[in-house]
Amino acid sequence: VRKLIAGNWKMNGLKAALAEAAKMAEMVGDGNGADVLICPPFTLIGALAEELDGSAIRVGGQDCHVVESGAHTGDISAHMIADMGGNYCIVGHSERRADHGEDDALVKQKAEAVLRAGLTPIICVGETREEREAGKAGDVVSAQLAGSLPDSGQYVVAYEPVWAIGTGLVPTLEDIAEIHTLVRSKVGSKTRILYGGSVKPSNAEEILTVANVDGALVGGASLKADDFYGIYSAI
Ligand code: 13P
Questions:
Q1: Segments of the chain scoring below 70 in pLDDT
Q2: What pTM was estimated for this model as a whole?
Q3: Which atom of ligand 1 is nearest to the CA of 158?
Q4: How far apart are CA 231 and CA 222, in angstroms?
Q5: pLDDT per residue over 167-188, tens digit each?
Q6: Which of 198, 203, 224 for a ligand 1 pocket mutation test, highest count of atoms within 8 Å of Cβ?
Q7: Which atom of ligand 1 is nearest to the CA of 164?
Q8: How far apart are CA 48 and CA 42, in angstroms?
């Protein structure tokens, strides 16, 4: 499958960041090497989709509500992201699971809402440090997949060990291979499986050549065009 390099800007990015994204689009050019995606905060989705219109970079959301519209103050639906020109939406990121108490059942409902809106969900899973140290990483990821994946439809899975996010720590290539092979056994050959957690230009090449790694979900290093392009060009 064609690789996907996705940037998750998290709660970063003011209007000035549009220029950085334009620079990324220029560097990526026709995107021959891989699919490229940026998920900015909701406030920038519309402007970024306009800025990147005609480029090889797609735009996505970082979360959505489970229904299309209604009395849910402060929430955003997948249909709204689609309406703004989005193509993807991340669901079940560990920061949503931790900060907002999102559980697998809710993540599954969100993934299904993303599919109903005609977008591709990127469903995040991954163990905590305690779970890894207890030898439970595989069991945790299996349970998250069983509870969070939609029953049908085309989606992307992102394996992001919580302890590797924003820490500079990365699992060994063997550990990444082990979990990705496990995920592969659950999702089949057509589903892209991304690795996320401290991906940088300096480690992207070795991570992206691990079996069953079909791309990366990048946080911090997706905010600067030079870093993000460095990861893209490692393919
Ligand atoms: P970092 O790349 O900053 O570790 O973040 C990873 C992540 O959570 C992407 O969703």
A1: none
A2: 0.98
A3: 10
A4: 9
A5: 999 999 999 999 999 999 999 9
A6: 198
A7: 4
A8: 10
